[in-house]
Amino acid sequence: MLFRQESSDSRKLCQKRLAKERQTRFRKRQKINHERIMDERQKRVAKERLAKERQARLIKRQNIKKNNYPPEIQIPSGQEAYEAPDLRQKKLAKERQVQFRKSNNNERRISDELESILLHDLGQIDQICVHCGAKFWMEERDHSSNRASPTFSICCAHGKVLLPPLAEPPLYLLNLYTSSESDAISFRKNIRHYNSVLACTSFGANIDTFQGQGISNFCIHGQVYHQIGSLLPEEGHQPAFAQLYIYDSMHEIENRHNVIQELDKEILQNLLNMLDECNPYIKNFRHVRDLIQTNVSDDIFMVIYAD
Question: 58 near 52, Cβ under 8 Å?
Answer without folding.
Answer: no
